[in-house]
């Protein structure tokens, strides 16, 4: 993907930076890397997940059906 020449140029440029500048470059590189998707959201309970699209839950759904088909 990258030529050896480009890699060498990056390494040489980094070698001339101060410690603070290297930390900034490292943070920038980390923003370029793809982020891992965590399954944290899938374990969260959503009380509306079972209701959305349901046709038999509660008076609201029954009223919508009556209004729609009458």
Helix content: 40-55%
Unreliable stretches covering 5 or more consecutive residues: none
Strand content: under 5%
Number of helices: 3
Describe the global form.
Answer: rod-shaped
Termini, distance in Å? 63 Å
- Please write the string of helix (H) and strand (E) elements: HHH
Q: Give the biggest sheet.
A: none
Strands, count:
0
Overall residue-averaged pLDDT value? 76
Category by helix and strand content: mainly alpha
Could you walk me through the main structural features you see in this protein, from its secondary elements to its overall organization?
It comes from Pseudanabaena frigida. This is DUF2281 domain-containing protein. This protein has 70 residues and is mainly α. It has a domain at 1-33. It is 54% helix and 0% strand. It has 3 helices and no strands. It is rod-shaped, with a radius of gyration of 27 Å. It starts with a helix and ends with a helix. The model has no long low-confidence stretch (mean pLDDT 76).
